[in-house]
Specification:
The protein is an alpha+beta fold. The protein is 40% helix and 25% strand. Strand 4 and strand 5 form a beta hairpin. It binds flavin mononucleotide.
């Protein structure tokens, strides 16, 4: 069962988490805590993959880490699991967090729920990537995504922000 609200107006809630450099959760706001079903105590100190949904292609997380480790922001659609067994879809924007000395100390993710129409498009793409990964490993998934973007003539970020 999905937790999305119906149709395009998904509301103004930003679901926020912060992590250290190894993606252990250091902060979660009340909206994130409410939707994921874990308590704050259960989340803090856990690896962020605690909310990973098995439908998420590995290639997308590989791309996420490549972008973050190159100093770029990451924009992407993510299906997250809920403790009770449900799920929800978000558009996530992850940025690095710096201390006052300018040293990178972790990451910060802002997410918003997305509409059913977007979910359909991205779910379709992710299931194709997943099929490729199941047959040919993660590189087959990455190749599929790259070919898909090349055919459309757009970059990854252009595609994400266009749907
Ligand atoms: C700030 C931040 C937020 C993240 N948020 C999520 C998230 O909401 N859901 C998720 O599955 N992974 C999220 N990740 C990525 C996870 O750290 C992890 O790479 C992913 O769940 C895949 O885990 P696995 O490779 O152990 O299967 C986030 C990472 C960072 C740095």
């Amino acid at each position: 069962m999905g937790l999305q609200e119906k149709d395009t107006d998904i509301g103004d809630k930003f679901l926020v988490t912060k992590t250290d450099l190894d993606s252990y959760i250091t902060y979660a706001n009340s909206y994130f805590i409410d939707i994921c079903g874990y308590s704050e105590q259960e989340l803090i100190g856990k690896s962020h993959n605690v909310v990973r949904h098995p439908d998420m292609p590995k290639s997308i997380f590989k791309f996420l880490w490549k972008e973050l480790q190159s100093g770029n922001d990451f924009w992407g659609y993510v299906k997250n699991s809920v403790k009770s067994g449900g799920h929800y879809w978000v558009l996530a924007h992850i940025i690095p967090n710096f201390n006052s000395a300018g040293t990178k100390i972790g990451y910060h993710s802002n997410r918003r729920l997305i509409s059913d129409n977007k979910i359909q498009q991205i779910d379709d793409l992710y299931s194709k990537i997943r099929n490729q990964e199941n047959q040919g490993g993660i590189s087959a998934g990455e190749d599929f995504l790259q070919n898909f973007l090349t055919e459309k003539g757009v970059s990854y970020n252009e595609y994400i922000l266009s749907i």
